[in-house]
Amino acid sequence: MYVYHNIETDSVLNNPYIYARETLIEQLKSRFATYGYREISTSVFEKYNLYATMNGTVNHREMVKTIDNTGQVLVLRPDITIPLTKELASNATTLDEDLRYFYALDVYRQITETHEYQQHTQAGVEYFGNPSAETDGEIIALAAHVLHDLNVGTFTIELGHAGFFKQIIDAIDLNEEELRELKRIIQGKNVPEMELLLNRLDLSDDMQKIIGSLPFLYGNLADVLAKTEKLPLTAALKEKLADIEAIYEVLEAYGVAEHIVIDLSLINHMDYYSDIIFQGFIERIGQSVLMGGRYDSLAKHFKADFPAIGFAYDIDLLLAGSTLPETAQLPEIDFVITYEKTIEKQAIQLAQQLRSHKFDVVTYVANTEQTKIPSTTASLKMTEDNITCTKAEQKKTFASDDDLVKWILANWEEY
Q1: Which one of 44-58, 268-282, 313-327, 365-379 scores highest in mean pLDDT?
Q2: Residue 267: which of 162, 117, 414 has the closest Cα?
Q3: Distance (Å, whole) CA 171 – CA 158
Q4: Which residues are CB-neighbours of 205 under 8 A, at least 6 positions away?
């Protein structure tokens, strides 16, 4: 579940950006947990053969490869869904319980044209077991819930069905080049090119009509279904539409149907998707920030058999489309302690005592050249005679460290 984009190179030293990014990730983790998901991780290094034997997933030329000290070719993790499924399949060939996982992990790619390495953070969920419309609806509703949490403004989730397009492909005879061209045209909704291609292909009238209509099967559910009623759909294709209708009913129950757009021309580059697929868009970003779908057949590649569905957000795209970077403020340091050199040991011991109670503390020797003191909630000025605590222009003096710490622990929130 990979989304390509460019990361701003100057963000690594941008403290507000980093703070906003970590805040966003924590918000996502918190929301995932409310739906019963628990955090997992996968190895940064994976065997190259894991992906080399799977066509239609990660572009092999985009993988960042390395060689270990035994000569085995490894890749930096280019995907999370595949190794997670493999790990689960190595422990059980079938499931007798539902498993809900979430993650926030980096994936790595190399851009073919520029040879640049890119590191992206993805945050998402994987649900193993229970291949029902209710499960699909819950996953999509969770994705919408996250976007509500982040106040990204208007957003839409486009809902399609990988099986719908696969049924069409199975019914016609196309070589690889023709199939690639057809996918490209459908994804771009390029009607003139579609007409030219259909005229070249040897297809039945019914199939030409169905394929030619795909760019127009987009919109609210009622309108799309009305258009499909005029098409010579097979029973198998009608079954896929029934899947979408059932999921839509669940989404109505969750109260998120207003954000759903049906798109039967939706095609994902990951061939392991078997059924429902979806992608999400927000106001500020011109590409999808969310991609996901059901992949019930992926486990069979690892000699197991269990259903699964999941999605992933591209964190940097999601952050760029939210208001967090604009409003992010670094938290103030709780205490700045300035002290006379003669009582340095006492000052450091006080700092350590406050840190043991989870306060943020920095220390400086008084009356020495120093850089600008960080923004702080309270300052502590230590002399050999006493300690003065200043917070919000209010001052209070203490005769000892113990008196100060006891007072802080009892009164900090109100002071």
Answers
A1: 268-282
A2: 162
A3: 25
A4: none
Query: What angle do the packed helices 205-213 and 162-170 form, to 10 degrees?
Result: 150
Q: Same domain for 162 and 80?
A: yes
Place of tokens 């029934």: 242
Give Cα 322 distance to the centre of its chain: 14
Q: Strand 260-263 to strand 218-219: parallel, antiparallel, or no bridges (unpaired)?
A: antiparallel
Comparing CA positions, the residue from 109, 127, 110, 153 lying closest to residue 35 is 127
Q: Which of 308, 327, 346 is the last residue of a domain?
A: 327
Tokens of 383: 């002399």
pTM: 0.83
Q: How many residues does the chain have?
A: 415
pLDDT band for position 268 (cuts 50, 70, 90) = confident
Return the SS3 of 152.
coil
Assign residue 276 a region: left if phi > 0, alpha if psi is -120 to 50, beta otherwise? beta
Question: What local confidence, expressed as pLDDT, does residue 12 receive?
Answer: 54
Q: Would the CA dihedral through 136, 138, 143, 148 be positive or negative?
A: positive
Tell whether 206 is covered by a domain. no
Distance, CA of 109 to CA of 76 (rounded, Å): 8
pLDDT tens, residue by residue, 323-342: 776 665 667 889 999 999 99
Residues 247 and 393 in one domain: no
- Measure the CA–CA gap between 177 and 374, rounded to whole angstroms: 61
d(CA 158, CA 166): 18
Residue 4 pLDDT class (50, 70, 90 cuts): very low
Of 258, 304, 294, the C-alpha closest to 95 is 304
Q: Which amino acid is at 73?
A: V
Bridge partners of 413, per DSSP, are: none
CA dist 300 and 23 (Å) reads 37
Domain boundary at 327, 351, 369, which?
Answer: 327
- Tokens (6 digits) for 61: 């030329």
How many structural domains comprise the chain? 2
The sign one gets for the Cα dihedral 280, 1, 136, 40 is negative
Q: Using an 8 Å Cβ cutoff, are 262 and 251 in contact?
A: no
Residue 192: half-sphere exposure toward Cβ, Cα within 13 Å:
0
